[in-house]
Amino acid sequence: MGGPVEHERGFFLHSDDYNENLLLKFQNHLAVSSNPKIPQDIVTGRGPKNSLFIVGYTAWKAGQLETEIKDNFWIRYCKKRWLYY
Predict the structure, then answer these.
(1) DSSP 8-state assignment for residue 5
(2) Among 5, 33, 49, 69, which one has the highest count of C-beta atoms within 10 angstroms of its own C-beta?
């Protein structure tokens, strides 16, 4: 299950109101960045409104995650926007 794993690198999952060196931006108001300046920007009020620091990730090839969900490898729940932060 899963794809490439990066478990020694930190990332910020944050609201899309912060655009410094974005890695990814999603349509649901989320963004991902590894900008080392984010903690300082958060402290000084120039960072994203909402953020979560995470370490590591797993990637999937196209369709792989959907297949794993269909095969009941994952527990699904109703998402609420506030759960991201």
Answers:
(1) E
(2) 33
**C-alpha–C-alpha distance, residues 53 and 55, integer Å:** 7
In whole angstroms, give the CA distance from residue 51 to residue 31: 9
- Reading the block at residue 43, the tokens are 């402290």
User: Strand 30-33's sheet: what is its strand order?
Assistant: 22-25, 30-33, 5-15, 51-58
Q: Chunked in runs of 10, what are the mean pLDDT values of the chain (85 residues)?
A: 71 90 84 91 94 85 87 76 54
For the chain, domains (ranges, CATH) are 5-71 (3.40.1740.10)
